Amino acid sequence: MNILFLCTGNSCRSILAEATFNHLAPAGFRAMSAGSHPTGTVHPRSLALLRKEGLSVEGLTSKSWDALPVVPDVVITVCASAAGETCPAYLGPALRSHWGVEDPAKATGSDREIDRAFETTYRLLRRRIEAFLALPLDRLQHDPVALKRELDRIGELPL
């Protein structure tokens, strides 16, 4: 199953989700990330946090959804649309869900406060990814309505 984590810039949230999912996922599951308007660079704080958490950053790049290596089965948007941020709408045939998360790249304050925003984003995404991977995926892969219901429920999980 191929999962696409999608946001506008593909520099923070979707990158954190891609690396975390691939670190935790069993064989046969693979995440990628992309943006509708990618920044072209991965935020340095995202890379530093992933390294600190012991996750690989090899191959992580900010890229367009026009350059996906495979067609995703599931698309999860991670923009915080409730905060007035517009999430891109993927136009392929994939099952879609929304896991809104505040953009840590927009955090202000001291270095420590900004680092905490990145850590909070990472912890929330990791919690949701762990919940996703705990689902009975062998069964849900064949029931898209039930899978979407579960993914939408996971997208509501608080930190």
UniProtKB/TrEMBL annotation:
Residues in domain Phosphotyrosine protein phosphatase I? 1-135
Gene3D superfamilies, sorted? 3.40.50.2300
Record-linked Pfam families: LMWPc
| GO aspect biological process, one term | response to arsenic-containing substance
Q: Which domain of life, per UniProt?
A: Bacteria
Q: Which InterPro entries match?
A: Ptyr_pPase (IPR023485), Ptyr_pPase_sf (IPR036196)
Name the chain's protein: Putative arsenate reductase ArsC
* UniProt source species: Leptospirillum ferrodiazotrophum
